[in-house]
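pls design
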């Protein structure tokens, strides 16, 4: 079976002295880069490099990856515009226990009391965490981070997500 590589981002710029790459990554894959021990890049001449990751920092728009020892400065200089790739099976292994944000679309939104108050209209992965867009039955909207502080449970079988107090997240909350 042939290996299937998935492009998860592109190197927008490099800092050669610090061996740091500024990567524009698809939001759904930024967290995977945050946990990466190795990074694979396809250079403009189609060569593939595998480099050890020393440190990763997520910003609101990019992923900054500091490469580990063993990467020459000439190699770092050649990484500008390189594609960042991962094997599809590696993503599948990493995401086996995780619900992708897009899978939450259409889920019922349930409050602490057990009442269905609306549904999830949209969802996306942000740099720090997933975010869902909620529309309630009375027309209010809320953008809520999918983190333990706000989410009680995600029930994939019943297609529902139970939130703690949503009041601070409504667009009309003051």
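designed seq:
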């Amino acid at each position: 079976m042939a290996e299937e590589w998935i492009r998860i981002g592109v190197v927008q710029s490099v800092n050669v002295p610090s061996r740091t790459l500024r990567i524009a990554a698809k939001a759904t894959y930024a967290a995977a880069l945050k946990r990466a021990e190795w990074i694979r890049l396809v250079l403009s001449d189609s060569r593939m490099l595998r480099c050890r990751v020393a440190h990763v920092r997520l910003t609101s728009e990019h992923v900054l990856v500091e490469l580990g020892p063993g990467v020459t400065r000439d190699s770092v200089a050649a990484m500008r515009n390189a594609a960042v790739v991962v094997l599809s099976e590696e993503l599948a292994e990493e995401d086996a226990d995780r619900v992708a944000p897009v899978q939450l679309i259409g889920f019922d939104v349930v409050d602490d009391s057990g009442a269905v108050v609306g549904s999830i209209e949209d969802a996306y992965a942000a740099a720090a965490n997933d975010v869902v867009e909620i529309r309630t039955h009375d027309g209010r909207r809320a953008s809520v981070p999918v983190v333990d502080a706000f989410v009680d449970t995600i029930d994939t079988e019943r297609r529902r997500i139970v939130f703690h107090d949503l009041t601070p997240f409504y667009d009309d909350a003051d």
